């Protein structure tokens, strides 16, 4: 062998050895030298992505060559989805800042922002400053958002007035109802969402309280989960007087959609006669859009929508999603993300387990965790899943 | 030269070259391979510091060999100082989490926590979870905190009642007055503070809105600064009716302490006849304790304290510190930290300059920045320092 070749082999061997030792022992070395970071650095920081002109709603804060990046780390086909108004900008920035710090700066999952009117330039710029991921901004088609023409407005108004009298939150709001119907049946139909299977729903002004040292998306994928939650409260009965009756009717009409080993036991304490009002709080969701796009949920949503209950009552997307997950998924396909410290006013899930809390460097107060407070359904979930 | 020696020189040269290229180009590589991080990794993570038994109030989350660490990065002789009650735990955790994320995880400056009663174990543990720095917890001696015996309580109560009638914030609170007097004259005298020269004062429930990509302590040191601020509002006149008169008296009695080129022009719009109520908002301070420990400030504080005005009126530590800085320091020794996005309810300083805002990845709203709002004195500061 030539002398230069022997030098070369020795040097390469030493480099490789050092590289792997550092990658195994030092998180930040691993970050610094991952293919995606080196690619980012070589390409420089720019908001002008190739093809940006043909995709005016697409902002790249850094120009990620995603095929190159994917060589380095396995990622799910997943996105964050955030419904926000322009006036929610400060709260949205806070939420994105926190999920980036606690999770996404290591993963660079993309974001889809949705609004019933165009996002301002200021909104796009301030959001793009918070993340190196792809950020896309979409406008929701009117027919996915506004109260349909066939809704009897007089009848709808009568119920809104009644809820206002009862002091029910958002009782008089039409736009809140638009949002609930949109989140129930349309967010996963948006053009920008079509390329993704998995999503993590985030709202403005939420808090992520712990480092998330695993990838919830690939966890879902690897463990055959379809729906993940952190908080499960009781619904206000006044907002859904006829919902349970419709669910019962649907189940009779479509027994073929009802899963074996489903979670309906979580929804009723008397074998299905009454709804116990338990639901997953859908302002946090990590879930599989194939579930919402499948025939069972399509039939369910269309049936519910045809009753007008989103406007004649005040059905939330939380009970609608939750009842669907409980009917159409196996209970093992629904996952409680204990590790994810999460707050949405007025409730917080803070991991109670000392090891989880410490490992996550959580900044929440365990004594204020909602899990086993009076309004929480967690104890029902524990019963269903055999945790107690 | 032997063959092995030639191999060795080549390999060392290549390693060194690669190392410096990566350090110069990759922040996170630089972090991963700094002496302090490698030292930390080699020593492992433990809360049991050598000598912990003899220092029961000292918590090390990670066992930093500080002399080894100092090889790698120059640090000032500086500490954070946080006055908090046990009931402020959640807000204190939030503040520490944010300063760590935005600044201190790269620097590991220590913390001193002060309280008028012992901190709970829960307080110490939750704080220590937020930082790898040294954290020390001290109890303030009663004579540094409580209303002195020689204060005429009847007279003090009369004024408190008057401020309550006028709806002045904390008007009726004795503990607020204790705190203001403590922050004016005693925090830098605490035992745990003795080993430090520089401090950064932080309160529970404050926000740091931007990455702080420089070291404000070494900046102060290198640029001969003694006092740094971010927000400068007007004081409530009702809380300090006699303060300006005392300041004028003190200046007459002690002309030897008054600095040339001082900042007193910031404090009066009529050449010193009246106080314009401008002051630096002292819930944020980065400053030099040698300034407070020097004869000028000692004489000033002792004089003010002897009048009883901390209790007979409701003097804040903010105007007291500010007036002292304006008298005893040169105006060039007082620094406005524009880059440090900072919020303390109800005011926020958010950098207005586009480049500073972007570089800092700030999550505040520039339109809500306090700098040039009606209650801000910034315009006076700009005039004094020739920025406008």
From TrEMBL, chains A, B:
- Work out whether the entry's keyword set contains Transferase: yes
SUPFAM superfamilies for the chain: Nucleotide-diphospho-sugar transferases (SSF53448)
Superkingdom: Eukaryota
Q: What processes does the entry annotate via GO biological process terms?
A: cell wall mannoprotein biosynthetic process; protein N-linked glycosylation
The entry's active site is 285 (nucleophile)
> Does this UniProt record's set of keywords contain Transferase?
yes
* Keyword set, alphabetical order: Transferase
Molecular-function GO term, any one: alpha-1,2-mannosyltransferase activity
Q: Which GO terms describe its cellular component?
A: Golgi apparatus; membrane
Record family assignment:
Belongs to the glycosyltransferase 15 family.
Protein name from the UniProt record: Glycosyltransferase family 15 protein
Gene source species: Collybia nuda
């Amino acid at each position: 062998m030539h002398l230069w070749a022997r030098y070369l082999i020795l040097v390469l061997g030493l480099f490789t050895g050092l590289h792997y030792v550092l990658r195994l022992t030092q998180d930040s070395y691993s970050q610094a030298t991952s293919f995606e970071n080196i690619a980012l650095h070589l390409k420089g920081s720019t908001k002008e992505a190739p093809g940006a002109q043909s995709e005016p709603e697409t902002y790249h804060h850094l120009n990620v060559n995603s095929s190159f990046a994917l060589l380095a780390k396995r990622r799910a086909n997943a996105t964050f989805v955030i419904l926000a108004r322009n006036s929610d900008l400060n709260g949205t920035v806070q939420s994105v800042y926190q999920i980036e710090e606690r999770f996404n700066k290591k993963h660079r999952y993309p974001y889809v922002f949705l609004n019933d009117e165009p996002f301002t330039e200021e909104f796009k710029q301030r959001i793009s400053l918070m993340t190196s991921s792809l950020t896309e901004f979409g406008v929701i088609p009117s027919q996915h958002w506004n109260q349909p023409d066939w809704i009897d407005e007089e009848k709808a108004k009568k119920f809104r007035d009644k809820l206002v009298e009862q002091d029910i939150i958002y009782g008089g709001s039409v736009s809140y109802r638009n949002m609930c119907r949109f989140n129930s049946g349309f967010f996963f139909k948006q053009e920008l969402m079509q390329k993704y299977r998995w999503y993590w729903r985030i709202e403005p002004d939420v808090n992520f309280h712990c480092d998330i040292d695993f990838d919830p998306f690939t966890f879902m994928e690897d463990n055959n989960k379809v729906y993940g939650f952190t908080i499960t409260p009781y619904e206000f009965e006044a907002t859904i007087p006829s919902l349970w009756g419709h669910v019962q009717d649907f189940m009779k009409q479509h027994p073929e959609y009802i899963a074996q080993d489903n979670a309906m036991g979580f929804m009723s304490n008397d074998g299905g006669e009454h709804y116990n009002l338990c639901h997953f709080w859908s302002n946090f969701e990590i879930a599989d859009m194939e579930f919402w796009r499948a025939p069972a949920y399509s039939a369910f949503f269309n049936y519910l929508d045809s009753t007008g209950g989103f406007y004649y009552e005040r059905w939330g997307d939380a009970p609608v999603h939750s009842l669907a997950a409980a009917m159409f998924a196996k209970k093992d396909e629904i996952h409680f993300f204990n590790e994810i410290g999460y707050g949405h006013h007025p409730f917080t899930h803070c991991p109670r387990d000392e090891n989880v809390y410490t490992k996550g460097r959580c900044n929440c107060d365990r004594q204020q965790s909602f899990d086993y407070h009076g309004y929480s359904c967690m104890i029902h979930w524990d019963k269903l899943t055999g945790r107690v």
